[in-house]
Design a protein that fits this description.
The chain has helices spanning 15-27, 45-48, 60-63, 79-92, 188-197, 222-230, 233-257, 259-274, 280-283, 302-309, 393-414, 442-447, 466-475, and strands spanning 4-11, 33-37, 99-101, 103-111, 116-123, 128-139, 163-165, 180-184, 203-208, 214-217, 296-299, 312-316, 319-323, 326-329, 334-336, 339-342, 355-358, 361-362, 370-371, 375-376, 382-384, 418-421, 483-486. It is an alpha/beta fold. The protein has two domains: 4-146 and 348-486, 3-Layer(bba) Sandwich (FAD/NAD(P)-binding domain); 157-342, FAD/NAD(P)-binding domain. Strands 1, 2, 3, 4, 5, 6, 17, 18 and 21 form a nine-stranded mixed β-sheet that branches. The protein has a five-stranded parallel β-sheet with strand order 7-16-8-9-12. A hairpin with a 4-residue loop joins β14 (326-329) and β15. α5 packs across α10 (302-309) and α6 packs antiparallel against α7 (233-257).
Length: 487
Amino acid sequence: MQPEYFDVVIVGAGLSGIGAACHLQHDCPGKSYVILEGRDAMGGTWDLFRYPGIRSDSDMHTLGYNFKPWRDSKAIADGPSILNYVHETAAEHDIDRHIRYGHRIVKAAWSSEEACWTLEVRRSDANQSVNVRCNLLLMCSGYYRYERGHTPEFEGRERFQGRIVHPQLWPQDLDYRDKKVVVIGSGATAMTLVPAMAKQAAHITMLQRSPTYVLSQPDTDWIANILGKVLPPKMAYAITRWKNITIQQWIYRRTRTSPDKVKRTLLKWVRKELGKDYDVDKHFTPDYNPWDQRLCLVPNGDLFVAIRSGKVSVVTDQIETFVENGIRLQSGAELDADIIITATGLDLLVLGGVQFAIDGKPVDFSETYTYKGIMSSGVPNMMSTFGYINASWTLRADLTAEYFCRVVNHMDAGGYQQFTPQLRAEDADMQPRPWITDFSPGYMQRGLDRLPKQGDREPWINPQNYQLDKKMFLKGEIDDGALVFRQ
């Protein structure tokens, strides 16, 4: 039996994959395609994570697609609302019929002679593997392992008599009413969980090894809501999107040029929320500059409200060992707990964990250079989506999909079958740099050695500037001498 063939295979039916399919249908209407999704449901992150309070940490006027206005009044949306937005988009564009659920790619083999990818796909419903072939591969599989999160080895873990839960695998039967809870971590997940759980728990302690910068803002955008009442939806959305992108980029630039001023402003806001007697220096003053890691957003100051209520405590210390009834800290103090939540981060996974080979030779992506942050040197007919560290993920996902379509149409116009990013003679002295620079969260540092390198010149860099990227991806030259096209 011959493997099925498609012009394009999109990997992943999350926010990026559904958006990519919409762009492909609109810009390359003659192309056949399929979306292969390893899980049994659409939505990616927004279907996987089910912990209390799950929400975006970006506003939905920039996390939403550029072609579909966000119409809800809340700009900082909860997980179910975002999942509904993804489902609605897929239904409106008839994407659903192109999705194969329970189809996880384990291997991708490229043949230069045939100008074709052969994908080994494991089907969960039949407990077997099938092959799918395609000319073009668009990876929208995210950046972390869905099967598990990152959990450090904790001394004495087996002694704890209560329940230990990682947010990525949240059990729906977890009853935390009137219980003492310790949440380990101080990233976006912890700062979402803590105020949400505080509504029912007896007390929650957020235990952090080191502080994180926290920014409070309303969960509604009053300008967007006013514009939505007086302008057509697409116009109101475009204006709000432009406003928010401009503000995001301005703030990020300020953190690079005047980090001390931004730091003082952020801490001033925290002190205003928590009062002069609260130890902000200890619990909310990191030893790095703002945006060296992402700022944590707390909508309507909900974390601060929970702290002021007395139901939430923040402890900055390190774990010595788990004990029968909680955690003993290096300071000697003990935290009582009925439940421990390990909000300790993600496990970074390169390109969905797929094993790639080019003409029979395995690909080690750490030995490649990134091309514009979306391709890898020497790897033909494949692009991947990886969002911004300093702005909403979907801003870059949209640009990647639109650029992919430009390249596809360029291939058709020239009669090409292959494109490959290739280092030029003038790139021989290029100095390698990490995939991401000036960004230090644990999940990224743990996985940097598996990601492609950056060079020290275009196009071998991973840009993190939406306005410049927009010009490069939508208007820049495609046949630039580094992206090589062949018949």
